[in-house]
Structure to design on (263 residues):
């Protein structure tokens, strides 16, 4: 099984990159059994919309993960409730929050488990992602089989917490992929028990600013502390992502390839 995963698709610049490069990526690195993107910043940097969901689906995205910004557009809550291939962090309280944090998607006879988690360190208060991961892995495997391939999007700030999650789940899931910081790390690896890991997949969008924001918007905030209206950076647009190759018999990863490709 081969999976393409894109880091946070940020702003309209990120959407343009995804639309432009998805087909060439499939030709160069595919074919892919599943394409997954983190969508939480796709609508003007904060949140998601049904229109963007439909666009991503039309372009060939099979599933979408997210993070803390998925709540920024309340109109999208209905889509979260209705669609079974878009996920919010599972460790929010499930009885009061829209949507689902884990599930199994299927395409061409192949099945893939997806778990979306959010970190606790330097992040808004939330339930433990570690105990939630235990619960969701058990739930997904009870629905399918013990060797189900499972991708975990761990949306977190601290590298230490991401590394801890990688080793904690090593051998139990196919991949633990860090998102949220918008800066791609160079630590992609297969952990000792067969789980692919990277601290942060990076950001799909304009790389010539501050985390996807124009320099003239972001830098003054560090100088004077005053609020600033953020605008999308469209300089040096690029796709940040990874390709995960998984053994169909074991559900464990055999290779992780980091991608940083400009338009």
């Amino acid at each position: 099984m081969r999976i393409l995963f894109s880091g946070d698709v940020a702003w309209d610049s990120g959407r343009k990159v995804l639309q432009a490069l998805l087909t060439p990526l499939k030709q160069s690195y595919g074919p892919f059994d599943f394409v997954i993107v983190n969508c939480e910043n796709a609508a003007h940097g904060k949140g998601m919309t049904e229109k963007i969901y439909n666009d991503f689906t039309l372009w060939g995205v099979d599933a979408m993960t997210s993070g803390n910004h998925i709540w920024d557009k309340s109109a999208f809550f209905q889509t979260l409730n209705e669609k079974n291939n878009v996920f919010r962090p599972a460790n929010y309280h499930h009885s009061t929050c829209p949507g689902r944090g884990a599930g199994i998607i299927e395409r061409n006879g192949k099945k893939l488990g997806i778990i979306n988690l959010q970190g606790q360190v330097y992040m808004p208060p939330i339930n433990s992602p570690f105990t939630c991961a235990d619960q969701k892995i058990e739930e997904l495997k009870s629905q399918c089989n013990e060797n189900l391939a499972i991708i975990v999007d761990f949306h977190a700030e601290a590298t230490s917490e991401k590394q801890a999650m990688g080793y904690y789940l090593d051998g139990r899931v196919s991949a633990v992929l860090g998102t949220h910081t918008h800066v791609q790390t160079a630590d992609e690896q297969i952990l000792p028990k067969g789980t692919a890991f990277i601290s942060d997949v990076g950001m799909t969008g304009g790389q010539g600013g501050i985390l996807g924001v124009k320099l003239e918007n972001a830098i003054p905030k560090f100088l004077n502390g005053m609020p600033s209206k953020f605008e999308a950076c469209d300089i040096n647009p690029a796709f940040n992502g990874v390709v995960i190759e998984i053994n169909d018999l074991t559900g464990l990863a055999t290779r992780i390839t980091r991608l940083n490709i400009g338009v």
